Write the structure tokens for this entry.
Amino acid sequence: MKKTASKITLIATMFAAAFVFAAPSVHAADDAAKAEKKKKQQEAALKKYDKNKNGKLDPDEEAARKADAEKAKAKKKKKNGN
């Protein structure tokens, strides 16, 4: 009986250690994916709204982006019936 309990404890410890070491790498991969998605969204917004092609969104360009975002949000809300 003692050997079985020792084996179970060893296996549980190994799983716990594996989780401790694997969790940060999974979290880091998730963060990298989010960062890449955000970068692509920013590039798309810059391409769409940067009318004077200076590489940044000026206040009027940013206002146009926000207005479109609000319209999209309202349309999604209406579509979902809220």
